[in-house]
Amino acid sequence: MTAYDAIVLAGGAAKRLGGADKPAVSVGGRALLDRVLGVCRDAGRTVVVGGRRVTARPVVWAREEPPGGGPLAALDAGVRQIGAPAVLVLSADLPFLGERTVRQLIDVLDTSGREAALLTDPGGRDQPLVAAYRTEPLRRELALLATEHGSLAGLPLRLLTQELDLARIAAEPLASFDCDTWEDISAARARIREHGNVLDEWITAVKDELGIELDVDTGVLLDLARDAAHGVARPAAPLTTFLVGYAAARAGGGPEAVAQAARKAAALAARWAGEADQATPGTAAGPAASGGKPDKPPKNDEADAG
User: Fold this and answer.
1) Are 84 and 91 in contact (CB under 8 A)?
2) pLDDT digits (tens, 9 = 90+) for 160-198
3) What are the residues whose beta carbons fall under 8 Å from the beta carbon of 131, sequence distance 6 or more?
4) For strand 4-9 and strand 46-49, is the pairing parallel, antiparallel, or unpaired?
């Protein structure tokens, strides 16, 4: 994948949110800005244009001139801070944007030979703030627009995109969903709690909170937790998965270390559960089948006396 930097636009007045600090609004326990920063972690440098704030990972800060001068002014401020041949440009209010879409944008930019690759939403509208640009054509057009209009402040994004050779990518249904109103925020918060989404959202949120960048097979860990709960005891499930994580960390970390520790613990849980079903020699069934200790033969007093 082509080396790229990222610019995240986190300014704006958020008028339809009553002037709230939109990048800091929480969706799924994470600030909208942090959610976007999470999907461009592969960027060589990430520049956030807007007011400084605490973020989940380090970024470079920039500010448009004048503050609140609009997306083109913000984009120009961000471009001045990057050096990669390609740049990913994102708004800070995309709760459902995924890393797969980011990779697709960069790959299409790389293979198409175009000057930019941008998403189109389900209605067919261009999304220039969910896009990848070649850096030099982007700088060129921003400079030309600034010369022509005297300033980039207040200019619409279409003045930029209409001058570039574009590749368009049809977005997944929610990839370009942005949060402009409190109704949008409520819809996003409800969406991530739906049955098909909540587990992945929760795991991602936990990793982000703990500063963990690790992709593991959650299905393996869930199977292990189930086996420990059913074959040993219900409290064994969370304790076992914790110990697997600890063992993986001691082994150097990484997905393979987690998988190896999970396999060992799963095999132990299977052996443990299997013993409950085995008959003990001299009895009709094992301890679990009888509900207690196996019966012992009566003492032989004479043998004991010897």
Assistant:
1) no
2) 999 999 999 998 889 999 999 999 999 999 998 886 778
3) 88, 89, 105, 116, 117, 118, 119
4) parallel
